[in-house]
Amino acid sequence: MEYATEQQLTRRQSTVWRALRAAAPQTIPVLAGYFVLGMGYGIYVQSLGLPVWMPMLMGTVVYGGSLEFVLASLLLSAFSPLSAFLMALMIQARHLFYGLAMLERYKGYGLRSFYMIFAMSDETFSITCSAEPPEGVDRGWFMFFITLLDQCYWVASAGLGAVVGPVLPFSTEGVDFVMTAMFTVIFLNQWEKDRQHYSALIGLAAPLACLVVFGSSSFLLPSMGCILILLLALRKPIEKAEGTEAEKSGEEVGA
Hints:
The protein has 255 residues and is an all-alpha fold. It has 13 helices and no strands. The chain has helices at 2-26, 28-47, 54-61, 66-74, 81-92, 94-101, 111-118, 122-128, 139-164, 177-193, 198-214, 220-233, 235-254. The longest helix has 26 residues, at 139-164. It is globular and about 55 Å long.
């Protein structure tokens, strides 16, 4: 019995290790982006006079990216829980749509699912919705480690920024552009992988139309709603087109 238990433990450790090794390369673009932006965030929080451990605490408990920048200033303003709640809802409302898209992918992984739901950032969503684990790698552990590594990058970078900020001060103006560049690379990578690009075109067209109609200050929620409605309405044609492309690809390989 002990021998069987040891075998099961060894097999489980091997499964976890393979998943970690497969997930790590997928998160390298996130590491590059989080290192620069996280450092800037840590320096910013420290410059406000908040404790050096505050960026790491917020990165662990909140993990909200742009929301954390806002919370840093809210901590120094007058106590207004309703205002803080509405601000957080407005900034992070896009995650409601992310959650709907990931219901099936995060289903059935036990406690790992709860953590992956909590720690699903923009960058993690972009990777986990498109990346596929190599053959023989457990999907649940693969997505779990992508999520965990991304959060570790953010927390560590924010903490490092808070520590070195007083010693190596520099302007963080424009540093957030690295996230735009990272999303562009992820988008192009996914574009190359997809056989048809209807979903990507919807994701580009809807925000542009909403930007013209609603303006730059309030186009985010309408564009998310439009994307959701269009994807639901066109789900069957998109799936049919993807299946047709897959059949054509199979025929070409067979030929």
